[in-house]
Design goal:
Length: 398
């Protein structure tokens, strides 16, 4: 069904579906709506396309007034800006979905409307109980509470998404660019992969060409050093999905061509262990040498992807190849900025260096005449010691 509302129309929103009798009345399944909301508050329906203002509160419903005209279908999404919802974080359907992800060997689970670190810990506990800790958690920042708890959410997450579609509804829209920059910077400081998503090319859902504002939006997200940008409606329900993807790629490449790749050390000291600090200086030196000496690539051997994540956080202007014998590390590091992952079975990486480089040559990653930097650990006295070597492939392989 479809209901039509005109500006100034008054109607009721009930928390008991059986009470809905009026032609324009609605039902909201948030049981604490009447308790938590105040007269004068705004309820945003259908991603902000339909705003209503609360005029009165009764025991089982609120009386609201339409702020503009619209026709709207059933089962529309509702936002309650600024309200801290009293809801269980993972409902039964969520838990079933998590089990489905585990059974089907998913690499990532994206969590919508994360509010604090406890939400992430709840999901991580389930993954641990099911021996699925390898699944990475992407926290979607979509409300003011998440912004208020940003540091703890970033620390607890594996990856983060700036989910602007809902975030702009939950916060003042003029604050959205500030929050986007804060989120991207916080992730970079903790070498967490960050995605900027939704409304990047929104007009291309209906039109074959974007607006200048959308192009500038993509350009600026790249300049802020986001790891990835994501299309949504443009490629799912849009009329021009291929053109949208091509336009996104074109603008990203142009922005990257003028981006400042200088290696500012923005890593949070509190986040780094003493071992991390050693590796941080090692990988930063490798990137600086590679870029200043015109070396062709950096090759990293990594078990769990930690060194590859750190390298990607520097946003290098040189190709990085992550070699791993862990299949989950292979899939997880594939998303990292500037990193190409390669899977190779081995026990001791020092014994397969030559083999790994040969496979890279065969794959066309590098040429026999190239010079590369290899960053890895070697074992001595039962300890892992980080090392950096500059190798001319022709000298090693012949």
């Amino acid at each position: 069904w479809t209901k039509i509302y005109k500006k100034w129309d008054n109607f009721n929103i009930y928390i008991d579906a059986s009470k809905v009798t009026g032609e324009q009345d609605q039902f909201c399944d948030y049981p604490y709506l009447v308790e938590d909301i105040n007269v004068g508050d705004i309820i945003r329906i259908e991603s902000g396309l339909f705003d209503v203002i609360v005029k009165e509160k009764q025991s089982d419903h609120v009386l609201v007034e339409a702020m503009h005209s619209i026709w709207i279908k059933q089962r529309r999404h509702i936002n309650l800006p600024g309200m801290k919802l009293r809801m269980p974080w993972l409902i039964e359907q969520d838990k079933k979905d998590v089990l489905f992800a585990i059974e089907n060997d998913f690499d990532f689970i994206a969590m919508s409307f994360v509010r604090n670190k406890a939400n992430i810990q709840e999901l991580r506990t389930i993954l641990k109980e099911k021996n699925a800790e390898n699944i990475q958690i992407i926290s979607k920042i979509e409300n003011q509470e998440a912004i208020d708890n940003l540091t703890e959410i970033v620390d607890e997450s594996d990856w983060v998404m700036v989910a602007r579609g809902d975030l702009w509804i939950e916060v003042p829209i003029e604050d959205l660019p500030i929050y986007q920059r804060q989120i991207v910077k916080a992730c970079g400081a903790r070498w967490k992969f960050v995605i900027v998503a939704t409304h990047l090319l929104e007009t291309m859902i209906e039109n074959p060409f974007p607006t200048r504002a959308e192009v500038s939006d993509i350009f600026n997200a790249v300049q802020q050093k986001a790891d990835a940008l994501m299309l949504s409606g443009e490629t799912t329900i849009g009329k021009y999905p291929i053109q949208a993807a091509e336009m996104m790629k074109s603008v990203i490449k142009k922005s990257e061509s003028v981006r400042d790749y200088s290696k500012h050390d923005d890593f949070e000291a509190a986040w780094c262990t003493s071992r991390d600090i050693e590796k941080k200086y090692l990988i930063r030196s490798a990137i600086a040498i590679a870029e200043s000496s015109w070396l062709n690539a950096i090759v990293i051997f990594t078990k769990h992807g930690r060194l590859a994540k750190m390298a990607a956080a520097f946003k290098p202007n040189v190709r990085i190849f992550a070699i791993t014998n862990n299949k989950k590390t292979f899939t997880n590091t594939t998303l990292l900025f500037g990193v190409t992952s390669r899977y190779l079975e081995y026990e001791d990486h020092s014994a397969v260096l030559e083999d790994a480089l040969k496979k890279m040559i065969e794959a066309g990653d590098v040429a026999i005449t190239d010079r590369v930097i290899v960053v890895t650990d070697f074992k001595k006295w039962d300890k892992e010691i980080p090392s950096l070597d500059i190798i001319t492939l022709q000298d090693l392989i012949g």
